[in-house]
From TrEMBL:
UniProt keywords, alphabetically: Antibiotic resistance, Cell membrane, Cell shape, Cell wall biogenesis/degradation, Hydrolase, Membrane, Peptidoglycan synthesis, Transmembrane, Transmembrane helix
E.C. no: 3.6.1.27
Annotated GO MF terms: undecaprenyl-diphosphatase activity
Subcellular location(s) per record: Cell membrane
Any one GO cellular component localisation term in the record: plasma membrane
Similarity comment: family membership: Belongs to the UppP family.
Catalyzed chemical reaction(s): di-trans,octa-cis-undecaprenyl diphosphate + H2O = di-trans,octa-cis-undecaprenyl phosphate + phosphate + H(+)
GO terms, biological process: cell wall organization; peptidoglycan biosynthetic process; regulation of cell shape; response to antibiotic
Record's protein name: Undecaprenyl-diphosphatase
Role description: Catalyzes the dephosphorylation of undecaprenyl diphosphate (UPP). Confers resistance to bacitracin.
InterPro entries named among the record's database cross-references: UppP (IPR003824)
Topology in membrane: Multi-pass membrane protein
C-alpha cells in the first residue's frame, strides 16, 4: 500500500511539474512548495532534472517543424550563403548567445541555487514574477524572427539565467524580457521555448548518471518513470494552452496567480 501511495505522489508531481513548466508561474518554485506539502524530500536536483527533461520532449514535439527548418536552413546558409536562409542561421546564433548565461551560471552556482530552494524564497520570487508579468501585460511588440539582434539574445539569455532562482519563472522571465524588447508575442514565445532546449538538454546530459544512480539506490524506478511520462503529456497540453493564452494577451491572469500563491506562502511562513 505504501508503494502505491509513493507511486501516486510521483505521478502527481510529474503532472504538476509538467503543467507548470511551460506557463509563467515557476515550475521549480511550485515543486518546492508541493514537496513540502507532501513531505517528500529529494536529494539534490535529480528528480527535477528528470521531469524537466520530460517537458523538453514536449517542446521538441510542438516545435519540431521549426527545429527542422532552422537546422536545414542553418546548414544551407553555411554551405551556400543563400540570403533567403540567413534569418534562420542568425536565429540559431542568437539561441547560442542566449544559452550562455544560464549555462555558465548553472554550472558555477548549482549548489547555491539548491540552497535557495525554500518555501520562503519561492514566496518572494513568485511575487517578483507576478510584478514582471503585470508590467508587460499590455505590450504588443513588432519584432519578428528576422529582426532580432545579438543584444536581444543576450538580454533574454540573462533573464533565463535569473530564472535559475526557484520561484522566478523561466518562461515568464524570458517572455517578459523578449516582449519588453519589442518582440511579437509569437516570436517571444518561440525564442523562449527554443532557448529552453539547449539548457535543459545540457542539464540532463550532465546529470544523467546521478539521476540513474538516485533512482537505483532508492528503488524508485517506477516512480521516476511514471513522473517522467506524466510530465511529457502535461507539458504538451499546458504549452498548447499557453500558446492560445499568449495569442489573446491574457498574461495578467498569471500575474494575479503569482501574487496570490506567493502572498499566501509568505503569510503561512511569517505568521
Amino acid at each position: 500500500m505504501e508503494e502505491i501511495l509513493i507511486l501516486i505522489k510521483y505521478l502527481f508531481l510529474g503532472i504538476f511539474q509538467g503543467f507548470t513548466e511551460p506557463i509563467p508561474i515557476s515550475s521549480s518554485g511550485h515543486l518546492v512548495l508541493v514537496q513540502n506539502i507532501l513531505d517528500m524530500d529529494f536529494e539534490g536536483l535529480n528528480f527535477e532534472v528528470l521531469v524537466n527533461f520530460g517537458s523538453l520532449i514536449a517542446v521538441f514535439i510542438i516545435y519540431w517543424h521549426d527545429l527542422v527548418r532552422l537546422v536545414k536552413n542553418g546548414i544551407g546558409y553555411i554551405l551556400t550563403k543563400d540570403e533567403r536562409q540567413k534569418d534562420d542561421f542568425d536565429f540559431i546564433i542568437y539561441l547560442i548567445i542566449g544559452t550562455i548565461p544560464a549555462g555558465v551560471l548553472g554550472i558555477l552556482l548549482g549548489d547555491a541555487i539548491e540552497v535557495l530552494s525554500t518555501p520562503e524564497t519561492v514566496g518572494i520570487t513568485l511575487i517578483i514574477t507576478g510584478v514582471a508579468l503585470w508590467l508587460i501585460r499590455n505590450i504588443r511588440g513588432r519584432k519578428g524572427d528576422g529582426q532580432l539582434n545579438w543584444k536581444d539574445a543576450a538580454i533574454v539569455g540573462f533573464a533565463q539565467a535569473i530564472a535559475l532562482i526557484p520561484g522566478i519563472s523561466r518562461s515568464g522571465a524570458t517572455i517578459v524580457a523578449a516582449m519588453y524588447l519589442g518582440m511579437k508575442q509569437e516570436t517571444a514565445l518561440r525564442f523562449s521555448f527554443l532557448l529552453y532546449i539547449p539548457v535543459s538538454l545540457g542539464t540532463m546530459l550532465l546529470s544523467a548518471e546521478e539521476v540513474i544512480a538516485d533512482a537505483s539506490q532508492n528503488n524508485l524506478w517506477i516512480g521516476y518513470i511514471a513522473a517522467f511520462l506524466a510530465s511529457i503529456v502535461a507539458s504538451y497540453l499546458s504549452l498548447k494552452w499557453f500558446m492560445n493564452i499568449m495569442a489573446r494577451g491574457n498574461l495578467k491572469y498569471f500575474a494575479f496567480y503569482c501574487f496570490i500563491v506567493g502572498g499566501i506562502t509568505l503569510l503561512i511562513i511569517w505568521f
